[in-house]
Amino acid sequence: MDLGLKDRVYVVTGATRGLGNAAARELTADGAKVIVTGRDEKTAGDAASALGPNAVGVAADNSAPGTPERLIAAAREHFGAFDGILISVGGPPPGFVADNTDQQWTAAFESVFLGAVRLARAAAAELGEGGVIGFVLSGSVHEPIPGLTISNGLRPGLAGFAKSLADELGPRGIRVLGLLPARIDTDRVRELDGLSADPEATRAANESRIPLRRYGAPEEFGRTAAFLLSPAASYLTGIMVPVDGGMRSGF
Questions:
Q1: Rg, the chain, Cα only
Q2: Do 5 and 19 form a contact (C-beta atoms < 8 A)?
Q3: Which of 201, 206, 226, 229 is nearest to 216 (CA)?
Q4: How far is 45 from 57, CA to CA, in rounded Å?
Q5: Distance of CA 31 to CAs 1, 2, 10, 25, 160, Å?
Q6: Burial readout 4-26 (b: 16 or more C-beta within 10 A, e: otherwise)
Q7: Does the structure show a pLDDT above 90 at 8?
Q8: CA–CA distance, 176 with 131 (Å, rounded to integer)
């Protein structure tokens, strides 16, 4: 199936590793051009080099107010267009209610929430008909995840913002949607599993709760993201798509 991605230009934040990187890989594999961002200039450059000539790395901090305009300008400068953005950020620090400090909450709000809002607002101002804004969120949008209190607090709010934005931008032909990963086999998930006393037992227990009985592969998430960002998904907006092997209870 031709997704219609050839020569379309996207910004993918947090794309030096994990889910953002998986999405950038699939986008470029299908012919899209991508601005790859990460906090460190060398890391972002190395990640882009690994993707080939259709990727450019840009060092960027999602929490910095000037980041959105700079990234959109980079897309136009390097590739001559801007067709969409996938907003992915590193997960907030783990912890229970009593563990997380005000400083951690504030830093996470600036990066995970307000940074994403700024990126989406800037993209909305620049995109034309056929444009798309995607958010990498979490299964915690629907069901809190034990030990991830900050994420549980911020991700559902972003989902609500995304739906509001989808309703506002729909008449302009701009789509807005979210992806809700659960146990995808990334460094972040392995780090979280490693916090337990017995990581192997933790993984086995988690897999037993997933109907497909395994963690997802990053490329499976990446292919889903590439499809949702593509013109092939042109009638999909205002939705949150679980990428979780069926782990979510309910419909």
A1: 17
A2: no
A3: 206
A4: 4
A5: 13, 10, 11, 10, 32
A6: bbeebbbbbbbbbbbbbbbbbbb
A7: yes
A8: 9
C-alpha distances (whole Å) from 138 to each of 98, 130, 204 are 22, 25, 21
* Residues constituting the chain: 251
Give the pLDDT band of residue 90 (cuts 50, 70, 90).
confident
In three-state secondary structure terms, 206 is: helix
Q: How confident is the model at residue 219 (pLDDT cuts 50, 70, 90)?
A: very high
Q: Which residue has the tokens 């030990």?
A: 147
The partner residues of 14 in beta bridges, in order of sequence, read none
| Cβ contact 168:230 at 8 Å | no
Amino acid of residue 34 = V
Distance separating alpha carbons of residues 68 and 193, to the nearest angstrom: 33
Could you identify the residue written with the tokens 């960027």?
60
